[in-house]
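Marked as duplicate of an earlier ticket. Keeping the data here for the record.
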Amino acid sequence: MIAGFRALLVAAALVLGVALPATSANAGVLQCAPYARQISGIEIFGNAGTWWNQAEGRYDRGHEPRVGAVLAFSPSRRMRVGHVAMVSKVVGTREVLLTHANWSYRGGIERNVRAIDVSPNNDWSQVRVWYGPMGDVGLSTNPTFGFIYADAPKPADKPVVIASAAVQGTIGAF
C-alpha cells in the first residue's frame, strides 16, 4: 500500500512539475554498519561512529585484535560517520585481515584485506587499510576507537527480581 502511494505521489509530482525531496546518495548502497552487524553478530545499530559508545556495557571492548571482533573507526574529516570492519584473521601483533563493506568501492564488499596498526603505542588507535584502487594499504592513517568483541552481549538490564512475601496464615481459600 505504501509503495502504491509513493508511486502515485511521484507520478503526481511529475505531472505537476513539483520537486520531490532528494533521497540520500547512499540509498540502496550496501553500508559498512549493516554488513558488519550481519557478519559479526554484534547487534548494534546506527552510524558506525556510534558503535563504540553503544557497545559500552553491552559488549567487551579493547585494543587487541581477535577473529570476529569489529574494529570501530572514529569519525574523522574523511569519514564523517566512522566505519566498522570485522577481523577475519589475526596475522600478527600489528597486522590483521578485515572483511568490510563500502571502503574501496561504493557499496562493495572486500574480504580478507590487509590492515596494519601504525599507532605509536601499538594500541590499534591508528591504522592503514588496504585500498583497492592502489592495490596496497592506503596512504592515509585512520583513527580508531578499538575492537568490539563479538562474544555474547551482556544483559541490557539488571536481572529481574521477583518479589515474594511470606504468608503467616491463610485468610481464605485461593
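See parent ticket for discussion. Residues 1-26, 156-165 have pLDDT under 50 and may be disordered.
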